[in-house]
Design brief:
single chain, 119 residues, 7-stranded mixed β-sheet
């Protein structure tokens, strides 16, 4: 069984930085493609960033390009999201997700970590 656990959220001011982490575990967790999503109150969950199994390929939502950086350390089964120049509109619950077992869709999700950015 695959488990994803996020950490690193918190309350910061606009312009500050945060780094989120997502640790994967389980027998089936073998360097899957992974991503970050977020859901703000009253809004649908939206894509933030994705990274290939090797880390060589990354994709970002337009709203975070140039401010957020996704990365991973496969030796630690950990994915990161470095968030700089945070804005109040970045306030949301951030979820990590993985495409385990060559799935074309994200089929495993973490429990989420809250990020709150005050103006």
């Amino acid at each position: 069984q695959v488990q994803l656990v996020e950490s690193g959220g918190g309350l910061v001011q606009a312009g500050d930085s945060l780094r989120l982490s997502c640790v994967g575990s389980g027998r089936s967790f073998a360097k899957p493609p992974m991503g970050w999503f977020r859901q703000a109150p009253g809004k649908e969950r939206e894509f933030v960033a994705a990274i290939s199994w090797s880390g060589d390929s990354t994709t970002y939502a337009d709203s975070v390009k140039g401010r957020f950086t996704i990365s991973r350390d496969n030796a630690k089964n950990t994915m990161y999201l470095q968030m700089n120049s945070l804005r109040p509109e970045d306030t949301a619950i951030y979820y990590c997700a993985a495409k385990v077992g060559f799935s074309s869709k994200y089929n495993h999700w973490g429990q989420g970590t809250q990020v709150t950015v005050s103006s």
